[in-house]
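1st attempt posting a full record on here, be nice pls
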Amino acid sequence: MIKLLLADDEELIRTALAALLGLEDDLEVVAQAADGRTAVELALSHRPDVAVVDLEMPGLDGMAVTAELASALPACAVVILTGHSKPPLLKRALTAGAKGFLPKGSPGGALADVIRRVHAGGRYVDPALAADALTAPESPLTERELEVLRLAGLDTPVAVIARRTSLSNGTVRNYLAAIVTKLGVGTRAEAFQKAREHGWL
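the predicted structure (as tokens):
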């Protein structure tokens, strides 16, 4: 029997997945979580074989949950389910330690097959997403620029961004100007939107 943890902040999706997977003879849902921090705690106490994790959750997101489980519970394979299947997210998920990456719109039986595959030591990436990832543009921004842009996207004042990144106000302004120029947009809000649409954030 393959023991499963399901983590998704949308209760309807989580319970539907639990019911669907519960129909499989070799799968057993042993825990369910509505946020990332609870997912990690339940995984450590229940020790599932596979964790099926939503990418966007309160507290810790799917990437952070994956990274924590890869470190604290390496025997637990993580499959990320997402409604936002952008190529850069795939790369980040695999780097964090995910063994599977599947769009939420996949056929019903696909998830059970992916769970079996990663439990057996394999990997699975949705073929269409993998093809997109090979042709997707790389982010022109540095890690530091992305860090500044993530904060700037929340309409955070320059002084607050400077304090959180240990930079001067002038340096933050220079970063924001460089970001806007590199992305070919007019404002930092447009830069944030463009970076988000491409999955760079």
